[in-house]
Specification:
This protein is mainly alpha-helical and about 170 residues long. The chain has helices at about 10-25, 25-40, 45-60, 60-70, 80-90, 95-105, 110-125, 130-140; strands spanning about 150-155, 160-165. It has a domain at about 1-85. A two-stranded antiparallel sheet has the order 1-2. Residues about 165-174 have low confidence and may be disordered. It comes from Linum tenue. InterPro entries: E_motif, PPR_At4g14850-like_plant, PPR_rpt, TPR-like_helical_dom_sf. One of its GO terms (biological process) is RNA modification.
Length: about 170
C-alpha cells in the first residue's frame, strides 16, 4: 500500500482483521494489528481490539484471547468481554466463562443477560445449585429478566396489514 501511495484508514484495518478472522489467519491478524501503529501511524481503537479477541476466540485460542484482553493498552469494554464469553460457550470452556462473566457483572451489574448467561452455562453443565445461586443473586440485586413477547403481522383484506402485540395467542387466528 505504501509503495502505491495509498494510506489505509482505521476502517481499512477493520476489513483486514475481519478477513483474517474469516480465513483463520490468527498470526497474520496479530501482525496487521502491530503494523497498524508501527508502519501506518494509526492507533488501534476498541473495535480493532475486538476483532483480535474475536479472531483468537473463534480459532479456539481462548486463553490467548484472555491474556490479550488483560494486556490491552486501553480498558476493555463490555463488548470485548462478551465476545470472549460467547466463544467460551461455543468451545465449552465453563471455567473461563465464569471468570469472564464475573468481570461482566463488575462492569455491568444490572444487565440481566450476564446473569442469565452464567445461570444457563451452569445448567448446561448440570451445576444446578450454581445456576440457582446466580438466579438468587439476580433477585438480591433486583435485576429482572425482561419478559418475552410475540408479534403477529395480520392482513385485514385491505392489503395494509397491521400488528398485534399480545401475551397470548388466540387459537382461532389463522
Amino acid at each position: 500500500m505504501l509503495r502505491e501511495g495509498i494510506h489505509p484508514t482505521h476502517g481499512t484495518f477493520i476489513g483486514i482483521l475481519i478477513a483474517c478472522k474469516h480465513s483463520g489467519q490468527v498470526d497474520k491478524g496479530l501482525e496487521y494489528l502491530e503494523t497498524m501503529e508501527k508502519v501506518y501511524g494509526l492507533k488501534p481503537e476498541m473495535k480493532h481490539y475486538g476483532c483480535i479477541v474475536d479472531l483468537l476466540s473463534r480459532s479456539g485460542n481462548l486463553e490467548r484471547a484472555y491474556e490479550f484482553i488483560k494486556t490491552m493498552p486501553i480498558v476493555p469494554d463490555v463488548v470485548i468481554w462478551r465476545i470472549l464469553l460467547g466463544a467460551c460457550m461455543l468451545h465449552s470452556n465453563l471455567g473461563l466463562a465464569e471468570i469472564v462473566t464475573k468481570k461482566l457483572l463488575e462492569l455491568d451489574p444490572f444487565n440481566s443477560g450476564n446473569y442469565v448467561f452464567l445461570s444457563n452455562a451452569y445448567a448446561s453443565s448440570d451445576r444446578w445449585e450454581d445456576a440457582d445461586q446466580v438466579r438468587k443473586l439476580m433477585g438480591e440485586r433486583t435485576v429482572g429478566k425482561p419478559s418475552g413477547w410475540s408479534s403477529i403481522e395480520g392482513n385485514d383484506g385491505d392489503g395494509s396489514g397491521h400488528s398485534h402485540h399480545t401475551d397470548t395467542v388466540d387459537s382461532s387466528v389463522k
